[in-house]
Fold this protein.
Amino acid sequence: MIVASLAFYLFAFMAVIGALNVIFQRNPVHSVLWLIFTFFNAAGLFVLLGAEFVAMILVVVYVGAVAVLFLFVVMMLDINIVVMREGFLRYMPIGALIGVVLLVELALVFGGWAISPEASGLRTTPIVAGVSNTQALGAVLYTKYAYLFQVSGVILLVAMIGAIVLTHRRRAGPRRQTIENQVNRSAADTLEIVKVQTGRGVSL
Amino acid sequence: MAEFVDGYLIPFAWILAKILAFVVVVLVSMAYLTYAERKIISAMQMRIGPNVVGPFGLLQPFADAVKLLTKETIVPTGSSPVVFFLAPMLTFSLAMIAWAVIPVSKGWVISDLNVGILYLFAVSSMGVYGIVMAGWASNSRYAFLGAMRSASQMVSYEVSMGFVMISVLLTAGSLNLTEIVEAQKGLWYFIPHFPMFIIFFTSVLAETNRHPFDLPEAESELVAGFMTEYSSMAFALFFLGEYANMIMMSGMISILFLGGWLPPFDIAPFNWLHPIVWFAIKVCFCLFVFIWVRATFPRYRYDQLMRLGWKVFLPFSLVWLVLTAGFLVYTGRVH
């Protein structure tokens, strides 16, 4: 058990260090790299909880895809972090308020379970023993919550289409490859066989 | 004290021994993969290839290693030194940690993870960071362009790779690599999933930045892409990481489609060989095809690469996934 708690403190400590560095780094690219480090430690914490499926999905989705695009954008844009820091004190109360609200919500949920253990019997989807968590998740996600699952998919689709519509511009200049034109080209419309008489030549 | 020794020390030493065994084998095969690549390509181009250092040039990889180690390490001006050296280390270690879940025979695996296939997918999707960090930290245009190309290429091909994996694991009914191999007894998945096998193989070529998709390091336009500014050991780590990735991906192809360590027929002459030998044969076969492809095909143009990934592979693998699921439900294998 001691190894598990040591690992927990390691991951938790590193996650906090990473999160602090995200805020305090001067270089925005370094900030994103620290953010990735934080995601990674959060995945480690999930593994310790026995939620290996969620941990792997966190790494695949956030580290492998979302953060890559983040890094892309931050590298391409010339962000001046000092200018961004100027409004720090003005926006701080709002930020602090959001943090407090989240903390209170978490405290309500976990505090409720801690004070009255019987409350966990009210869970709509109790944890089934003896099933791997991938199977358990799949069993409720595609049956009980199938509609919610589909709705979240549709929301993502709408966001994706919106982003494409907002940013897509068709420029007049570039010449594109049209595959069907190339495939449909036949010898008949491109080649002409000419019989050249000796000494006469042809005019084309 | 005895409890401590039995409970922690012995398992720890045992895991360490297993890791060491894997790492040594992978490192040696990496070294000889570079040799094999040069020899096979030279044979295909009717040349001799390396033949001076040792008998048949067999010591060539070690000569190369010594050469790279003794060269000067150059850090470009205006670069970000920590990220600059973190990048090759990351590439190399990611290529190595993927081996933690690859079973080379029944029970011969460091960690028999429940979600082994997802772990492999996660590790291979993180490979892009080494390249992006290298490109950015080098403070060079060639390196940066190479990194950008590689990042978009890897993100694009990962999507269809994911769908191919889902079709396979639906058929096997498990995310555990050992169980996926066991499920292929009698019928290796490259027969029912043949189109997916081809798509996966091609995506792996793109994911490992190999020919004909080696745009991130296209010599004719980008010098050496993201590796332009690297020299000495940092370059060697990138190079080795790339070859370790090739071996790891070949292992993944063998496990997902070629029945892992299973012999083709479970009858007399075939099952005399140890399962590990079968696994090694399959990995070598995949690696040979990697090299063969390099010697045969010209490089893709960038827009063609993107079109292939997004407009051909992605819709096709999505349709195949739906067909697979439909077939499995219809025949009552999944409910």
